[in-house]
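tool=predict chain=A
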Amino acid sequence: MLRRHRLDFLIAAGLLLLPCLLFWQVLIGGRTLIPADNLFAWQPWRSFAAQQGVGVPHNELLSDLLLENYVWKRFILESFHAPGGLTNRLPLWNPYLFAGTPFFAAGQHSALYPLSVLFYVLPIPYAYGPFTVLQLWLAGVFMYVFARTLGINRFGATVAAVTYQLSAVMVVQVVFTMIIAAMAWLPLLLALTEKVIQQQRAGGSGKTLPYVIGGAVALGCQILAGHVEFTIYTLLVMGFYAAWRIARGSGCQPDLRSAIWLGVMVILGVGLGAAQLFPLYEFGRQSFRQGAASYQQVISWAYPWRRIIAFFVPWFFGSPAHHSFFDVFSGQVVPVTHDFYGQPIHTIYWGVKNAVEGGSYLGILPLFLALIAVIGRRGQGSNAEYQRSRGYVWFFLILTLVSLAFVFGTPLYRLFFALPFVNQLRTPFRWVFPYTFSVAVLAGCGAWYLSGTGRRTTSAQSPFTGVNTQRIIGWPVFWAGVLGLVLLVGSRFVPGVVIPLAERVMLSLAGAPNAFADGRMFYSYEFVNLLIFGLFLVATGAVLRVSRCPIYLPKWLGGYAVWKPLALAVLVGDLFLFGYGFNSAADPRLLDFKPPVVKFLGQDDGLWRFTTFCPKGEPTFHANAGMFYDLSDVRGYDSLISKQYADYMGLIEPQGWLQYNRIAPLSDP
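tool=predict ok
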C-alpha cells in the first residue's frame, strides 16, 4: 500500500512545503502572525512607537487577530490554569467586556477545536504560524483527496489542491483562524459524502460505516472551529451535492439508503459539535443581530460590480500592506505620504470592500483550466470516464454561478436570505468561499482533461479535450497578454500623454483620489498590477499551447510531459506573488510592552470598569485591549453582543458602531 501511494505521499509533502515557504518567517524566523505593531497606531501605545522602533504598521486591517483571537486565546489559557475543578477552568464567562458576557457560547475562540491544542502547548504568539500552515495543508490535502475521489488524476488533483490552499480566500483570511479552520474541512466532507454514495450503489453497506464515522468526525471538527456562518455554507453545499448525486441514481432503493446514511452522518457530526453549537444557538437568539438588518441593507454589503476586476488583477484596488509604490518613470520606490487632496495617508487602498472581505483571487491559470473543463470535448460519447465527469463539471459550474450571484447581491440572494437563522448574517460576499472551492475543482478537472490518462500524454492526445480546444484558448490568451504588455510598456515612453489621462481616470473613480496623490502615482501603481496580469496571461497561454507538444522531462525526473511542471510553476508563482507579504510577521516582544497608564490603572484593586472618551471618533485604548492586562471594560468588540446590553448602552449614547460589532466609546460631552 505504501509503495502504491508513494507518489500521493510526496504530493502531500509538497502541499505542506508550500505554506511553510509562504509563512517561513512565523515558523522559523522568530516572528509572529499577530500584528503587534498595530497596537502602536492607537493611544496610549502610539506615544511610545518611536521608542519601541515601530513605524507605520505593516497591515492595519489585520487588527482583529490582535484584538479578538489573541486575547481570546490568552483568556482560555488563563482559565485552564485557574485553580478548582473543571467547571472553574472552563471559560464560560468573560468578565472583562460588556459588563460581563458569555464567552464559551460565542464560539469563535475555537476552544474545543482539536488543532487549538497548539495554542495550549506552545507560546501563543508562536503558535499562529504552525496552526496556519497546518490548516492550509489540510485544506490542500483534503482537496486532493476529494479530487481523487471524483476520479480526477493526480496532476489535476494537485492543481485543485494548490489552487484551493493558496487562494486569496484562504491567505487573506489568516487573520480569522476560525474561518480558515472551518473552510479546510469542506473538501473532506464532500469526499466522504461521495464515498458513502459510491459504496451504497456498489451494494457495500458494511463498508459504508467507516465513511459515515469519518464524515461525522470531520463535521464535528468543522463545527468546533467555531464559525457558524461557514458551517451553514458547508452544510448547504453538502446538502446540494448529496441531493444532486442521489437524484442522478439509477434506482430508488440504493439512493434511499444513501440518504439515510448521510442523514446519520450529519446527525452524528452535529452531535459531536453540539457542545459548541447549542450554546451558540442560545446566545445568538439573544444577540443584537437578530433582525437588526433588512434584506436591502444586507445586499448593500455585497460586492459592487466593479470588484470583478480583482478576480483577475487582485491588487488593482490596492492593499493595506502596500506603503510605497514603484515610480515607473524615475525607477525609484516612493513612500506613500498623501492623497490627491493633500491629506496624509500611508497606504494604498481604494476598494469599496476591504482587502480581507474582497479576497477572491485564484490565479489566472485556474480560471482558464476551469473554462477548458466546462467546454470539454463535443461529440465525445464513447468514453464512459469522460461522460461520468461531465456531471461533476455541470454541478460545480452551477455552484460557481450561484455563488457569484450571491457574492454580488443579485435578487437570487433572496433564496438564501429566506432560510432560517440567515437573517443574522450580513456577509453575502462570503459566498466567495464556495465560489473558490468550485473553481478549484473545475481547474483540477480542466488539468485532468488536458493531461489525459498517462504521464507522457499531451493535451492533443488526450481523449477528454477537443482537438483544438487548447489552441483555441491558448493562443488568444497568449497573444492578448503579449499585446497588453506591448501597449503597457509603450505607454511608459509617452508620459505627457498617459499621466494626464491617468489623472482624469483616477478622478472619475470613486475612492481613487483618496489613495493616490496624482495621475503619475496612479499610473505607476496600476502599471505594475497590469504588468503582472499581462505576464501571467502570457504564461497561461504558453502553458496551454505547450500542453500540445510532445516535450518530456528526462526519465530520471519521471519522464512527464514538460507542460505539467511548467503549469504548477506558473500556478505557484502567481499565488505566491499575490499572497506573500500580506500577513504580518511582527516582533512578538512588542506584545510585552505595558504603557504607564496601564500600570497606573492596575494599582486600583477595587471593582471598577473603564471606558474611553473619544469626541473625534479616533479610538483610544481600543476595545478589547484591556484584556491584555485583565482590565474590565464597559465597551467591547465581538460578533455576538447581548441585545439587552446594546439597548442599554444605546440609552446612554447612540451606538453607531454596532454594525462593526462594537460598543462605542463615549463621544458626546
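The two ends are 73 Å apart (CA to CA). The mean pLDDT is 90.
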